[in-house]
Amino acid sequence: MTTINKCLFPVAGYGTRFLPATKAIPKEMFPILTKPLLQHGVEEALSAGIVNMAIVTGRGKRAIEDHFDNAFELEAQLKNTPNEHYLKDIRHIIEKATFSYVRQKKMLGLGDAISTGKTLIGNETFAVILPDDLCTNSGDSVLAQMTLLHKDYPDCCIVAVEEVPNEEVGKYGIVEIESIPNVTKSMQNLAFKVTNMIEKPTLKESPSNLAIIGRYILTPEIFEVLEKTKPDNNGEIQITDALMTLAKKGKVIAYKFQGRRFDCGSVKGFVVATNYFAKAEGLI
Ligand code: G1P
């Protein structure tokens, strides 16, 4: 079976870069125009045919659960009024998707967050969306593109990658790639075998300027590997280190996605995304 049924969203982070706004509001609830970042991610998962959302959350993030639940008072207030259309998108999501939650006990890195999600995922291949990385495309969404690729390589993990300027390699997991023998024609120049990967390298250490962005498809093998992955110098367990173990077995593919990504984990990227969507809507 190659269908992917679940998407994991690691959203336990403190959102330090957005303080003081993140003191009482989860950063994943910050809107790009009127839609929270996490809702953009959930819509992307739905567009890839995934209906089960597994959210790894933390203290102070209850607004997320309320957002993806029926709000009876609001429903009653707006029903059969000219404002009812404002609820259309979120109603659709609540009807289509299921949401389950687990709390990450300590902030021990993305690898630890993904391990925490194991209880929600079980023994199956799953997707991961980091909602900070907001992706948009006129055709298939980035995750939909990756689920298509997954059908050809069901035993492999897939990471979405894009080229970043040299001065930014230290912000990302960076991969080194080579071509896949007999790669499907439609995936030529898009899908590659990962031969090396380093989390946040210096420019000197960096094997390339191909950065992992927040979209992954992971086989359940990753959970066993994560258990054995040692924390880095900051005490964090990195998904990149765990994936490197699988890359050594030829089981990780890098995918150069079609579309545009905004780094909404930084104030600047957030503003750029807001402007982009505001222009697209004809608001500015
Ligand atoms: C995480 C990953 C990194 C990846 C990035 C994408 O880093 O550890 O490999 O390139 O997401 O956004 P973070 O942004 O959480 O520091």
Report on the structure:
This protein is of the alpha/beta class. The protein has 10 helices and 13 strands. It has a 5-stranded mixed beta barrel. The protein has a two-stranded antiparallel sheet with strand order 2-3. A two-stranded antiparallel ribbon has the order 7-13. The protein is globular. The site of 1-O-phosphono-alpha-D-glucopyranose has 14 residues, from strand 11 and helix 9.
Bound molecules: 1-O-phosphono-alpha-D-glucopyranose
Going across the major beta sheet, what is the strand order? Answer: 8-11-9-10-12
- What is the approximate shape? globular
Radius of gyration: 19 Å
Number of helices: 10
Low-pLDDT stretches: none
Average pLDDT figure: 96
- Structural class, from helix and strand content? alpha/beta
State the distance separating the first and last CA atoms. 46 Å
Sheet of most strands:
5 strands, mixed, barrel
Brief overview:
By secondary structure, this protein is an alpha/beta fold. Helix 8 crosses helix 9.
How are the SSEs placed, and which strands pair?
Layout: E1 6-10, E2 31-32, E3 35-36, H1 37-47, E4 52-57, H2 62-67, H3 72-78, H4 88-96, E5 98-103, H5 110-116, H6 118-121, E6 126-129, E7 133-136, H7 142-152, E8 157-163, E9 173-179, E10 191-199, E11 210-218, H8 221-228, H9 239-247, E12 252-256, E13 260-263, H10 267-280
Parallel strand pairs: 1-4, 1-6, 4-5, 8-12
Antiparallel strand pairs: 2-3, 6-11, 7-13, 8-11, 9-10, 9-11, 10-12
Helix pairs in contact: 8-9
The structure holds 1-O-phosphono-alpha-D-glucopyranose (G1P).
